[in-house]
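Re: zinc ion structure - here you go.
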Amino acid sequence: MTSRNPLPHPCVRAALCALFLGAAGASFAADPVAADPVAVPPGADTAAQAPSEPAAPAATPGRPEVSPALMLRAAKLVYDRDVARARAANSIDETSDSSRRIHATAQRLIVQAIRVSPTVPWTLALTVENEAMPVAYCLPGGRIIASSALVDRMRLTDAELAAVLAHAMGHAIAGHDAEEAIVRLKRMPDGIAADPNRTVLNLAEILAQLVHKDPHTVDAERVADSISLDLLLRAGIDPHAAVEAWRKVARAGGTVPPSFLALNPTWSSRIDDLDAAIPAAIRAYQASLVAPPAPAAAPKEAKKRKPASG
Ligand SMILES: [Zn+2]
């Protein structure tokens, strides 16, 4: 029997975001990436910024760091490349009912992502691809690529669709890819270059590998599951939808990246774990509505992800 992680308090998640995306200390608002437009049609960016500019934490003297601004630039670069690839393949779906449902659901969740991650300038930039394989990943800062197969093939209800998207967003809220990208960048010779544009290119290369090919760890999956339950509750969606959503994910299969299942590996007790976590998630959510913010806790060091084989 595997253990279950408790649902992180919203303030803990905010601290996680600040640590993983903001470790080096630059203000998000200082970066042009954060200044996206406010409302745009499907396939383009819909920006929604944190209400106030966070204070910049101090950088470690003498040690090269990766600013959150660079991370967001790298994430935007990966997203823009993915959109360009899909556009070249004529596979962007902006008009189908499935695409509209995915966009509407993501919009509903991004409002909540902003609330639980006030230090991150979340941007909803969602592109839906007309693709037979179920795909859903969320880059640091909130840009999402999803496929119409979530609806057309998996037959997810709106609530189940929300559960899948909330899980993908949970990884971004927890900073899983951002954290791992920084670890890998620091291992690269000249990964953090004198020219910040080169650093962004290096980061983008790593991020692309992470979101396209390398599965998350089970520990990261548990954290993303917990955050997804909280996002669903905050969006007024029955969190039990996550249980059925993961049943459908398992049935749909897809062991080859970038399928959702391949990049979000499941385990034998996941459905039971999710189901059992729901009462605690509801209690934590209800407590968050009335309780003052709890002191932020330092995150546990995540286990390192292994590159995908083959
Ligand atoms: Zn996952």
